[in-house]
Amino acid sequence: MEAVLLAAGEGTRLRPLTITRPKPMLPLAGKPILEWNLDALSDAGFRKAVIIVGYRKEEIVDYFGKAHKNLEIVYVTQDQQLGTGNAVLTAKDHIKGDAFLAMNGDIITSAKTIRSFTADWKNRRHAASIALVEVDNPSNYGVIRLKGSIVEEIEEKPEKPKSNLANAGIYLLKRGIFETLSQLKKSSRNEYEITDALKALIPKRDVSGFTCKGIWMDIGLPWHLLDANEIMMKTLKQKPSRKAIIEKNATIKGSVHVGEKTILKSGTYIEGPCYIGKGCIIGPNCYIRPYTMLGDNCHVGNAVEIKNSIIMQNTKIGHLSYVGDSIIGQNCNFGAGTTVANLRFDDGGIMIDVKGTLTNSGRRKFGCLMGDNVKTGINVSIMPGRSIYPNAIIEPMTTVRNTIYAE
């Protein structure tokens, strides 16, 4: 069976991180979101993936090329982001079988989830099937109401949900869906929605739902990245590369990936699960705490502490700095003594700028969102939940209290 992955969007709610990369290429536990999904498809037995690309598509094409593991990869460009229905329709000429799987490129799932969903559908052979997950906050999702295994209703983010079953963004579809998609009208969001095509099939009782267990997460907001990074870190069973250089008195505790040519200097203490990429220099006397990811060629200076953070490649965290619960882009440079605060005095939920609106993340601890190529001077202090856009330069001794845009 073939798979279609929807990866054409930017992910505006994840700015400033997506200013310089498409959302599915944001890294978690050492690899992009999209790579985790391609791994899951390959391990579940799929052999071809049609990736729908659009925004900054070169990032995806250059990274994956024409194949990944056992998957042949075909790219189709969605020139305008006209919705999920339009995205699936663009794959029509590249689907040869009588049925295929379609999934959002910005979720995290597992081969086990995909295999169980596919096996259930093969027993039913409906025109379409929707993977479902039980959630605590169904009002934030498309909500599905079932009668037995048959979908009776799909509601988008209802105020009073009729079930706790959310649309997981994974579908199994027969080829006939392309005809239905070609006849769709735009939704209230001015897009062609895959769910509208499924709604058209509901009166025929030809749409089933399957409640999945295991790994699944929708990454729609900045703090979801830290949640998903933690989940995927727990799946890693890693140890240092034989080509890593670990000096005497450096300590590694638990599951820690250390890439080749990375140097851990004396006094460095790494507490897993953690992921450290290739060619990094860490220490001396650093403390890398659980759920931290350092991309390739990062430099962490003397007496630095990093906790539960995603640090992208080629970034330098200068000595005597602290970074907690943060997402830092690539090619950033922290001046000595830069401190990222991650806890409010009143212990309240951290507010984060999402598309210009301060939104409660619900997290007790969250540091900052920092785009690529940012530089901080010495002794900069960054307040909890602040966003800093790519290419910003922050003067020494500055306290960052609001969103910072590059001039």
Structural description of this entry:
- By secondary structure, the protein is α/β, with parallel strands linked by helices.
- The protein has two domains: 2-220, Spore Coat Polysaccharide Biosynthesis Protein SpsA, Chain A (Alpha-Beta Complex), CATH 3.90.550; 245-400, UDP N-Acetylglucosamine Acyltransferase, domain 1, CATH 2.160.10.
- Helices cover 16% and strands 33% of the residues.
- It is built from seven helices and 39 strands.
- An eight-stranded mixed beta sheet has the order 5-6-4-1-7-12-9-13. An eight-stranded parallel beta sheet has the order 15-18-21-24-27-30-35-38, with no helix packed on it.
- A hairpin with a 2-residue loop joins strand 32 and strand 33 (357-360).
Largest sheet, spatial ordering of strands:
5-6-4-1-7-12-9-13
Q: List low-confidence stretches.
A: none
The percentage of residues in β strands lies in: 25-35%
Number of alpha- plus pi-helical segments: 7
Radius of gyration over all CA atoms, rounded: 22 Å
Major sheet attributes: 8 strands, mixed
Distance between the termini: 49 Å
Shape: globular
The CATH H-level homologous superfamily of the largest domain: Spore Coat Polysaccharide Biosynthesis Protein SpsA, Chain A
Mind telling me the CATH class of the largest domain?
Answer: Alpha Beta
What is the CATH topology assignment of the largest domain? Spore Coat Polysaccharide Biosynthesis Protein SpsA, Chain A
Assign the structural class, choosing from mainly alpha, mainly beta, alpha/beta, alpha+beta, or little secondary structure. alpha/beta
Q: Number of folding domains?
A: 2
Mean pLDDT: 90
Q: Percent helix among the residues?
A: 10-25%
Could you give the count of β-strands?
39
- CATH-defined architecture of the largest domain: Alpha-Beta Complex
